[in-house]
Prior knowledge:
With 493 residues, the protein is of the alpha/beta class. It folds into two domains: 3-234, ATPase, nucleotide binding domain (Nucleotidyltransferase, domain 5, 2-Layer Sandwich), CATH 3.30.420; 242-493, 2-Layer Sandwich (Nucleotidyltransferase, domain 5). Helices cover 36% and strands 20% of the residues. It contains 17 helices and 22 strands. The strands form seven sheets. A seven-stranded mixed β-sheet has the order 16-17-15-14-20-21-22, with helices on both faces. A five-stranded mixed β-sheet has the order 3-2-1-5-13. A hairpin with a 5-residue loop joins strand 2 (13-19) and strand 3. The protein is globular and about 65 Å long. It starts with a strand and ends with a helix.
Amino acid sequence: MTYLLALDQGTSSSRSIMFRPDGSILASAQAEFRQIYPQPGWVEHDPEEIWQSQLATARQVLSQSGVSASSVASLGITNQRETTVVWRRDTGQAIYNAIVWQDRRAEPQCLRLRQAGHAQRVQQKTGLLIDAYFSATKLQWILDHVEGARGMAERGELAFGTVDSWLMWKLSGGAVHATDVSNAARTMLFNIHTNRWDDELLALFNIPSSLLPQVQASASDFGRTQAQWLGHALPIGGVAGDQQSALFGQACFSAGQAKNTYGTGCFMLMHTGDQCQTSTNGLITTSAAQPDQATAYALEGSVFIGGAVVQWLRDGLRAFDQSADVQLLAESVPDTGGVVLVPAFTGLGAPYWQADARGAMVGLSRGTTMAHIARAALESIAFQSTALLQAMNRDASQPVHELRVDGGACVNDLLMQFQADLLGIPVLRPAVIETTALGAAYLAGLSAGVYQSPHELSRQWRVERSFESRISRDEAANKMADWERAVRQTTAT
């Protein structure tokens, strides 16, 4: 049997998963690494730790599974997306820590660009809003603040990449400097209509083109790993940013298909086919994973605090010992008792974009218990995700008819049922919820000829459980009205 190895490099940990061709998991391994906070609003990772932790998990998976590296048909990579790494081409050493997607140090520069009237042009070309979230201003900051960096860049001595590019450089011993369209689309330097780096954007952000990786289709020949790392030279055949990879792993290949990943935050993507649709409802447009040269797009919205609200209940309020206990506590009451929790701990993301908002609870009474608050916390995840889907339906040419779900919090049946109640469409939890890694494996498998087409992958997708709405549309609308009222109270100045 042939196997597919996926490297899933995330914000807090590196994971590797060995998949069988049918999409089932043979073995997995995970390793956390340091989060570095030099100043408030700054978030960094050590690129060497990213590399070493990812390599260690890949070796562990090979050992656990008993699969020899020579039996791996192809290797796929999926990654935290906008995080920015710059390294020397001669030594392969990073010149600064990776600046993580959460990092806000470049916001003053973004504000200057917005005030100078560049927002519309940038959005037209990239689908993105000018924001410190994306890579361009992070890269600009490194070039302007690391001694000698700009001169080295102008002499062609440095390489830039998102984390996928960094891993491919290390795996290949410096032979490969590449990325895929889905990661390139998160840099604010890439034209998603032409699928090329954009000269006008490079000039705007003052970025020398010599820094940039080659951009390829998400399923293509990205070169080979050096045999020393995993015991055999493996082809790298699939690369995609984590959320686009999850969309692919959920077999959402057609316009109108959507998935929501319930992690620390929530990321909802709707495939829009070959139509690049600009949002008028607070969403961004991005390139979907593209298995070949045909363009494919998605609308995307992000909820900042999803599963993190459960961590807050556990660690901040000491409501329970383990996150899994939240469901039992929440189910001990029939409803929230009128409590609505808006977990705007770091502001509100799409579709509200209220950076200054802070968390609030409304509807408290003398009878409110921790169980009511726990239930309200779970419901807040579903409320925010519903607001995202409603925004998508307003933007899209065709509405979403079902929502495919993944991520750690999707195992919570109470949350998934409430999500279906609010949406009024089926919420489908697949048999394999590790869809981010699965997407990378599928892309690698397409490149290696393990699969002949995405249609074949659609047939492999299996539902573990379907959640259907149990309440009327009027009741759902009333619940959303209560939520929106609480949001307005949270954001009132």
